[in-house]
Amino acid sequence: MEVDPVAFKEAARAAWERSAAGWDAHTPAVHRWLAAATETMLDLAAVGPGSRVLDVAAGAGDQTLAIARRVGPTGRVLANDLSPALLALARSRCRKAGFDGVETMAGDAESLRVEPESFDVAVCRLGLMLFPRPVHALRAMRQALVAGGRSCSLVFGRPDRNPCVAVLMKTAVAHAGVPMPDPGRPGGLFSLGIPGALERIHEEAGFREIAVSVVDAPFELPSAGHYIDFIRSSASPIQQILASLDAGRQQAAWDDMRERLEIFRDGDRWVGPNELLRVSARR
Ligand SMILES: C[S@@+](CC[C@H](N)C(=O)[O-])C[C@H]1O[C@@H](n2cnc3c(N)ncnc32)[C@H](O)[C@@H]1O
Q1: Would the pLDDT of 1 be above 70?
Q2: Is CATH 3.40.50.150 correct for 5-159+190-220+272-282?
Q3: 255: phi then psi, degrees, rounded to nearest 5
Q4: Residue 278's pLDDT is what?
């Protein structure tokens, strides 16, 4: 399916700018959700003291801080994101933790301009699948790496392994009376969950030693309501689907989604099944 990448990214930038404060407020929950997956991503990329790391689509900087901690005072961290508001929050998160040296660069990852061969590692946590032309971003990441440099990214896996998103989508389109979007559409949450997609784009970008593995990352929260709050605070496609409804009908849709998500209640906690894919590669 064709998308206009310029218009798509402008809409994404505006949506993330609007959601920046809400996404930032959910950082502790995102941190708990992705802590183990993030550490493995950084292990596989061999991030350690002195590493120079490019963090693509860094958002509010949760993984940026983890990288800064690992690389220490002799390393370098450059965080990129489409949203300047999110990057300002990432910078402030790192400064508050004592990492004043973390650099930021606002802009589109698909046309990243950094000095060639100036990084040992490039990572991208839950960003790559949101780019309409991810191979462009991977080429830019590869170009930023020294020979033998490593890249590691996390993306959403198959839709059937991420049933909470399916519940949200199905319920939202039913309320809005619109067709279900194609799960594999470029820039969609599941665009790189299709078997073979990550290998193909990494090969196309010129990477070698490409390895993809499945990561089980259940999202544990106190309740389905907390999950709905998280989704409402992020730049998710659900808001777009519901945009044509008035406030009352939107609220009814959110209430319906929350009720349906109760199937994932487990005693006094709520655990949303979630499967990610991790891809590591070398220049
Ligand atoms: C799901 S959030 C992940 C943020 C962060 N990496 C994390 O895991 O907490 C996706 C991020 O991708 C960024 N993004 C989307 N499209 C982008 C693009 N074309 N270039 C750079 N960043 C982009 C958004 O602004 C947002 O911060």
Answers
A1: no
A2: yes
A3: -65, -40
A4: 98
Quote the ligand 1 centre to 126 CA distance (angstroms): 7
Choose between 68 and 183: higher pLDDT. 68
Whether residue 183 is predicted with pLDDT greater than 90 in this model: the reply is no
Query: Of the residues 8, 10, 16, 56, which should be mutated to test ligand 1's pocket, given the most ligand atoms within 8 Å of the CB?
Result: 16
Question: What is the H or E stretch that residue 38 is in?
Answer: helix 27-44
Ligand 1 centroid to 135 CA: how many Å? Answer: 16
Contact 25, 233 (CB under 8 A): yes
The ranges assigned to domains in the chain are 5-159+190-220+272-282
Q: How far apart are CA 108 and CA 230, in angstroms?
A: 24
Q: How far is the CA of 82 from the centre of ligand 1 (A)?
A: 7
Return the pLDDT at 184: 87
DSSP H or E run through 197: helix 197-204
